[in-house]
Amino acid sequence: MKALVWHGTADIRCDSVPDPRIEDPRDAIIKVTSCAICGSDLHLYDHFMPGMESGDIMGHETMGEVVDVGAGAKSALKVGDRVVIPFTIICGECDQCRRGNFSVCERSNRNKALGDKAFGHTTAGLFGYTHLTGGYAGGQAEYLRVPFADATHIKVPKGIPDEKLLFLSDIFPTGWQAAVQCDIQPDDTVAIWGCGPVGQMAIRSAVLLGAKRVIAIDRLPERLSMARAGGAETLNFAEDNIVERLNDMTDGKGPEKCIDAVGLEAHATGSIDSMYDRAKQAMMMETDRPHVLREMIYVCRPAGVLSVPGVYGGLVDKVPFGAMMNKGLTLRTGQTHVNRWTDDLLKRIEEGQIDPSFVITHKVGLDQGPEMYKTFRDKQDGCIKVFISP
Ligand code: NAD
Ligand code: ZN
Ligand code: ZN
């Protein structure tokens, strides 16, 4: 089959690789009908995240049709089922899965000991991510092996196009969880740093959850205008002092709720910021630059909430923890517990409350994947979200 394969920093190729096969009774194989490139893939593309090996298949936003099912997954899935695959692999049985804390499943990351050592603590098994999260082949490919497939899937009805459903795999529940974690009240102003695909989903979610005001921050005009179309007021961090402007806009009080939809920042700005040393950025963010976490802590209204879906890979330096403590802020973060939200979100899509396909700007085949990684990373050609049909 064809797949997008990692070969090193900024080197992804569309290669011919062996088809995946059932390796465990709980596996299923799906024929991929659509997949997408995520901001989290860029941490691997730029090689900010350790634990990649040449030959790894990329991708964790995938959907398709079941073409083979192991004996242990047959009670839940059959050939022909249409499924969206959450980026987090879940066993469905461990103590954390039973509590709904799927992104910290205790059994699906087969390299957990190694990952824990590298990061202090790592996550559940993830598709198409580093070997520290299990090293599972990803879904930017024609076929995908789904481990623990009886639990790791979202069944979706036929008749709704892939474009509307694919983002249940990651960015829609990610934006949603980021907003839910803010515990939004009708009087709240929610400030959202980053208007990439995750920020866009967080904006729509905060509006759906009844925020009085949403203020979104980025520097790219096409992303800021998509944010405004979603109901946000916008600020440009390349032009404005964000802390000052947010204070002005809220009568000096600061927004009650703050969402970091940026994470590892150097590449999120298209690697334009050469003051960042690549290795330091990856594992130890030592900088005097006002990074997002610091701005959020300084500007958030006392007793407010900081919600951080943005991905970090190691230590972050110069975070004003004293201000956070004295303001009584609550910090909520994590990889998304995808399956916790998807029944509700699928219903909202079916009822027409939201159509997550609004975020797609580029539609391509797998062979254009390598070029699309660069376009998405460098924020060229108005690129916000790349949708791939293998
Ligand atoms: P993206 O790179 O497309 O978007 C990031 C945006 O942040 C860009 O538009 C960039 O211009 C903007 N930005 C950069 N520096 C900024 C600053 N100082 N202030 C405000 N905006 C700034 O990525 P994405 O796909 O939207 O993903 C965003 C983050 O969410 C990434 O870190 C990704 O890894 C993470 N993510 C987390 C989860 C999860 O489960 N928690 C899931 C998916 C993605
Ligand atoms: Zn993702
Ligand atoms: Zn589990």
UniProtKB/TrEMBL annotation:
Secretion signal span: none
Annotated ranges, domain Alcohol dehydrogenase-like N-terminal: 25-153
Cofactor: Zn(2+)
GO MF terms held by the record: oxidoreductase activity; zinc ion binding
Pfam families for the chain: ADH_N, ADH_zinc_N
Residue ranges constituting the Alcohol dehydrogenase-like C-terminal domain according to the UniProt record: 197-275
Family: Belongs to the zinc-containing alcohol dehydrogenase family.
The protein's name: Glutathione-dependent formaldehyde dehydrogenase
Species in which this protein is naturally found: Lichenibacterium ramalinae
